[in-house]
């Protein structure tokens, strides 16, 4: 991977982030994720600390399944756009249904792991409420809730990495669990630094846009919103969420575009040689094979 190749891949990912077809796929998916987050936040508005904690992380982990399915579609569409093929959306959706379904299942282990962490957290909340000794438990064993919350954050980061590294493999190669694991681990083991650099490059626009939009939402909440009941607050958040998702859509599309481009840059170095080794993006496949 050279600087010229990286620059070419980055520019191509940016230019194709404003494709109408991709926006038609990404915006409804982000709206669905936004509805899930708003619904959970509304439930947590007047809930106990334990329930509020679970509803803070659970929608993020559930949304990762939706985003994995979205990523497969966007990367396959990106593949066609790079090759300059005419894309029929119905054919693309029908041909990707099995892959989308299989890819969405990748988020289930993280959700189950988080539910286990949430149950353990509930035990410490229960100990905290015991008369006389509850304060002792909350002080001496404070490191247990800390580790559980830290583990929940790590699960969210793991799912974010899954979106970047697993989505291109699922979209561009046959979906087999062992093959998926082998390919992803092959990239990380052989080119960990390059993989992390590309991951943070893809994540930078999302972080910037989310930061700006969150700041605007907080200022709006502090100076304009007046609702006090959970239902009213949910409706306010819902109507704010719609333009939030619309402005976030190009950044999300870029994330998956660049994930596909990064897969193109890194896979030639870890795939076995031979005529059957798959390689995406048409003409670039031959150049990659020559390098091998």
Give helix % range: over 70%
Global structural class: mainly alpha
Instruction: Tell me, rounded to a whole number, the average pLDDT.
Output: 82
Q: Which oligomerization state do the chains in this entry correspond to?
A: single chain
Q: In angstroms, what separates the terminal alpha carbons?
A: 12 Å
Domain module tally: 1
Return residue spans where pLDDT drops below 50 for at least 5 consecutive residues. 269-280, 282-292
Rounded to an integer, what's the Rg over CA atoms?
21 Å
Largest sheet: none
Number of helices: 11
The total beta strand count reads 0
Basic shape: globular
Order of helices and strands: HHHHHHHHHHH
- The proportion of strand residues reads under 5%
Please summarize what this structure is.
The protein has 292 residues and is an all-alpha fold. Helices cover 82% and strands 0% of the residues.
Features:
mainly alpha; 11 helices; 292 residues; 82% helix; disordered C terminus
Verbal overview:
This protein has 292 residues and is mostly helical. The chain has one domain. The chain has eleven helices and no strands. Helix 3 runs parallel beside helix 7 and helix 7 crosses helix 10. The chain is globular and about 70 Å long. The two termini are 12 Å apart.
Chain-wise SSE layout:
Blueprint: H1 3-15, H2 20-44, H3 49-83, H4 89-104, H5 108-128, H6 134-140, H7 143-172, H8 177-190, H9 192-223, H10 230-266, H11 283-291
Helix pairs in contact: 1-10, 2-3, 2-10, 3-4, 3-5, 3-7, 3-10, 5-6, 5-7, 7-8, 7-10, 9-10
């Amino acid at each position: 991977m050279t600087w010229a190749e990286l620059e070419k891949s980055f520019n191509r990912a940016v230019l194709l982030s404003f494709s109408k077809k991709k926006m038609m796929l990404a915006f409804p998916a982000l709206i669905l994720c936004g509805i899930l987050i708003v619904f959970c936040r509304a439930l947590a508005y007047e809930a106990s600390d334990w329930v509020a904690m679970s509803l803070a992380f659970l929608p993020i982990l559930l949304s990762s399944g939706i985003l994995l399915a979205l990523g497969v579609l966007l990367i396959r569409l990106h593949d066609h756009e790079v090759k300059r093929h005419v894309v029929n959306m119905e054919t693309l959706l029908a041909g990707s249904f099995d892959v989308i379904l299989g890819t969405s299942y990748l988020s289930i282990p993280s959700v189950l792991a988080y539910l286990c962490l949430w149950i353990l957290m509930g035990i410490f909340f229960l100990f905290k409420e015991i008369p006389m000794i509850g304060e002792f438990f909350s002080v001496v064993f404070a490191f247990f809730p800390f580790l559980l919350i830290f583990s929940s954050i790590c699960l969210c980061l793991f799912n974010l990495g899954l979106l970047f590294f697993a989505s291109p493999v699922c979209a561009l190669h046959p979906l087999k669990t062992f093959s998926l694991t082998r390919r992803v681990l092959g990239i990380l083991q052989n080119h960990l630094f390059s993989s992390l650099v590309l991951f943070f490059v893809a994540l930078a626009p999302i972080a910037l846009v989310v930061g700006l939009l969150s700041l605007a939402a907080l200022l709006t909440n502090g100076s304009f919103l007046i609702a006090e009941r959970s239902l009213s607050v949910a409706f306010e958040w819902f109507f704010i969420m719609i333009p939030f998702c619309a402005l976030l859509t190009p950044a999300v599309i870029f994330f998956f575009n660049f994930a596909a481009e990064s897969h193109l840059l890194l896979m030639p170095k870890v795939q076995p040689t031979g005529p059957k080794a798959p390689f995406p993006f048409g003409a670039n496949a031959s150049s990659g094979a020559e390098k091998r």
